[in-house]
């Protein structure tokens, strides 16, 4: 495994977060040497891993795209392939591709206070290697690439068809004119159902309970008008700003006036499939944004239900049978293929291990510093976007903060920076990293993530303006520079 023995910054992950970090580092800290580690053989992260039919963004590309690289395609909601191409183009344009070490997994990282460096243990197709860096940025995402959440279902071994998980979609899966049951009601399921509906003999979504599903236009009409008037790049910046504020305002209204928010969502669904189906299958018992709201561009899920190429069964699964799935109420869903869209396994740091001067770092026992660093861990930041808005909006704010920290370290001659709790801070109530989000995958993994406290800077706000305000200062007395 060839490459530099020591660099200023190592970015772990070449997905949407890692490419953004590399571009921002190159633009704002051109004197810093860096390398990007990517365990896969191609960049793209999520958009390279997932291959299931219909994979697409669940945020509009005006805000999921980069502020420094305008998204100029017409589609507001884009396919996974289009997003990967956009990331490849960005990496090539900013000279990042040649700085990515593909097929290289971070196994462990050890910090030494004696020489203020991280020593990274790596593995790849050419064997093991070591790399030293002054600063480590984790752009590894938040879920395991080893496999999705795949709970064993009663009777699963008796099913005579094929069982697949979307994270490991087989290339040879032939679902044409087959009966397919998709277990789940999140973003993956609502994407898969309309994509399969036109080619299967029947596709059925089996959900334990309903999810909030919002119908959005595939193409933004205002963006189309602006593209004609001012051109695609200028239109991108205007629509991005509009959508940024619209997302925050929508979230605020949903939390403060949930009944009004529900009415907008429900009325749109009623117009396609009718009140009866909506009440039975698309009226959740929890409040909006307790879990992420799924986007259905053009209402394609509901169009498939209306034309009866897809249907929905809501209730608890009793067991799998040789020919399908039996529900607790006795309903039997015939299936040749069962897709377990049961979610992700969340992890921190790409499942590598970390230590500071020989003491293992347990992220779950740390405090989150501004949602981007860990208490007591020097020269490390991590990329985690918004959960109630486009991921990238927060990622770019994190990257800006990282660059300003590196610049400040140079200005004052510091080799180390560590978020350091003041006396008494450790007595703060330990709140979840993503407080207020009740999604199962978040709750299952809460112990792996750092806790929020009850005052700045030990917070992880999910509001854009609050986040920008929180990230203003890189010299707040809590970051200890040495």
Structure in words:
The chain has two domains: 6-146 and 345-481, FAD/NAD(P)-binding domain (3-Layer(bba) Sandwich); 156-340, FAD/NAD(P)-binding domain (3-Layer(bba) Sandwich), CATH 3.50.50.60. It is 30% helix and 22% strand. It has 13 helices and 23 strands. It has helices spanning 16-28, 46-49, 61-64, 80-93, 187-197, 221-230, 232-256, 258-273, 275-281, 300-306, 391-412, 440-444, 464-470, and strands spanning 6-12, 34-38, 100-102, 104-112, 117-124, 127-138, 162-164, 179-183, 202-207, 213-216, 294-297, 310-314, 317-321, 324-327, 332-334, 337-340, 353-356, 359-360, 368-369, 373-374, 380-382, 417-419, 479-481. The strands form six sheets. Strands 1, 2, 3, 4, 5, 6, 17, 18 and 21 form a nine-stranded mixed β-sheet that branches. Helix 5 packs across helix 10, helix 6 (221-230) runs antiparallel to helix 7 and helix 8 packs across helix 9. It is globular, with a radius of gyration of 23 Å. The model has no long low-confidence stretch (mean pLDDT 95). It comes from Nocardia xishanensis. Belongs to the FAD-binding monooxygenase family. Keywords: Monooxygenase, Oxidoreductase.
